[in-house]
């Protein structure tokens, strides 16, 4: 007995492959519509399978599928943060931000829905998935600052910057992806160095991290550029010293 | 015919006063519990009135009461931002932040619930109330920067800082209100000046605003202190210039 090519493909996938296929279909739908506007029928249609098959994999229905898709997106997002601890800090941050912003660009409205949590199916579990990504981002950054036991001021500075990056991503999506991604990314790196330096003024631990980071920077890197651009702006403020 | 004192007080309030009394009772409940954990019975009990009376004022029930309480909290929050355009920018920001952080301190969990929107009764209307407060905060700050027509980089910097302040407020509540409010507030002022200065490096309009602001600062003010504290940290970075 022969079957149509579509049906053969349908049969050939392993459980893991099928599950993954359904998550990809769900993610791409959530990427362009709010979760409450995505139905299980939409997911089945996008994956080219039947509704009962979606239910077989996600018997909890839409809520379970949404959480699994969110979990899968969160895993993908966390992978963006991995970066070897080598070279100037600004370069590491630039590369991680390029991957993160690439994710934002690719998932656009799904990323917005994910972060804003403005969903009828939001639960404490979905909130904790998003918070887990934030925590992972903070831990990655703190590990790059080479500080043994980061104190509250340094931690708060890093967490505030992460929230500011999320806000910038949402504003960027809202403003039709302007400015270009590399300009946005350079601005975020600048802001990170700026807030870290401001905190360093009052916190010896952060001051140590900044000195260590600055020693690794080069004149033609982002921080060298920032330093030379900012100097003329603040040089009129001699009356403050 | 005489009535008990409680009943007399009950009768004497005008419609506006009664409404306001119910909102105050609702706000104080939402301040300590998530909206989904507050019932109309709780509000009636806290206000010392009957449940039907609450329904007479808010026939839409809990959703309408929640939105009205949110609207009232938003109005109160927006009042914190008003500040005369006089004296150094850091002083204006310090005073506005003191009022804002006082609001956060007073409403604690209600503030968190308000911002996180992690509520079963969240709607696009409640989201737009919170967004309205953010927009109002941004417009206030931009007006103090004395820039005629703020461009996208300056706007984004201000909006990112506002989100970072929200994050700091939530972290502060989450960490049992540590550090002391004045230390938190000084750190937020420092970060504002830092991100504004970083943006000034690439944006002539922001550079103009920073020069103007720095000219008004005094050596014993927050920005003078920040400048003197940061100088030794960055002075090792001569290789970047």
UniProtKB/TrEMBL annotation, chains A, B:
Record feature DNA-binding region, as residue ranges: 39-58
Domain of life from the UniProt record: Bacteria
Cross-referenced Gene3D superfamilies: Tetracycline Repressor, domain 2 (1.10.357.10)
Keywords, ordered alphabetically: DNA-binding, Transcription, Transcription regulation
Keyword Signal attached: no
GO terms, molecular function: DNA-binding transcription factor activity; transcription cis-regulatory region binding
InterPro entries tied to this protein: DesT_TetR_C, Homeodomain-like_sf, HTH-type_TetR-like_transc_reg, HTH_TetR
Span of domain HTH tetR-type: 16-76
Record bears the keyword Magnesium: no
The protein, known as: TetR/AcrR family transcriptional regulator
